[in-house]
Amino acid sequence: MTAEASPPDSTDFLTLVVDLCLPIRGATLPADHGYGLLAALCHRVPMLHRNPCVGILTTAGIRDRQGKILLTPHSHIRIRLPIEAVAEVYKLAGKQLKIGSHEVQLGIPKIFTLKPSTSLKARIVTIKGYTEPDTFAQAAQAQLEKLKISGQVTVLQDKTGKPLRKTLRIKGHTIIGFSTLVENLQEEDSIRLQQVGLGGRRRMGCGFFLPYK
Fold first, then answer.
1. 122 near 207, Cβ under 8 Å?
2. Which among 3, 99, 125, 139 counts the fewest CB atoms within 10 Å?
3. pTM (two decimals)
4. First to last CA, the chain
5. Nearest Cα residue to 193 out of 203, 201, 183, 204
């Protein structure tokens, strides 16, 4: 489950890919919960681990600066998957998950189709071997070209002008990535990028693009 796979060729994906959004109820989660969430979801629905077309976006909350996030009434998990897999994943509705020492319950999911946007943002993109912003941006641009997607990659910056470097911990290993913006996308390319993402570890919240304004 820890291996990083290259993004599949876009022709491997069904034309219709959707987002399944499940409300998540509970008190807290680890701030870095990508791996734990994947493990808990795959325990309930093993297909999520086997299907290379699946992306899972971790949930947002209020950081307590002690390694946890506080869940809010708006917290949810977003699973991006081919529409033919929806029925199996829909079975997660109402199920309880244990993520580390944290217990949460999933609500009734809603289904959303992907919408084109000229600009897409991913909170974190990881590309194996690229941990510096300049070389990372070049590698991400090369992946776009390989996917035949026309767009411009930018590593986002914080308020001080420093690249937004993000980390992901998997079984004691720290993976480095960057918040990434892709601009100047045509409608078809925008949908394709949302379907296939960039980099690896899409089932742990990486390379998962959403419209950016």
1. yes
2. 3
3. 0.89
4. 33
5. 183
Side-chain-side CA neighbours of 30 within 13 Å: the count stands at 14
**Measured between alpha carbons, how far is 184 from 158 in angstroms, rounded to an integer?**
22
User: Are 113 and 18 contacting, i.e. CB atoms less than 8 angstroms apart?
Assistant: yes
Number of C-beta neighbours around residue 141 at 10 A: 16
- Give per-residue pLDDT as tens, 107-166: 999 999 999 999 999 999 999 999 999 999 999 999 999 999 999 999 999 999 999 999
In the chain, what's the furthest Cα-to-Cα distance? 45
Cβ pair 23, 61 in contact under 8 A: no
pLDDT digits (tens, 9 = 90+) for 66-122: 889 999 999 999 999 999 999 999 999 999 999 989 999 999 999 999 999 999 999
How many Å apart are CA 25 and CA 40, to the nearest integer?
Answer: 15
38-64 per-residue burial string, b: 16 or more CB within 10 A, e: under 16: bbbbbeebeebeeeebbbbbbbebeee
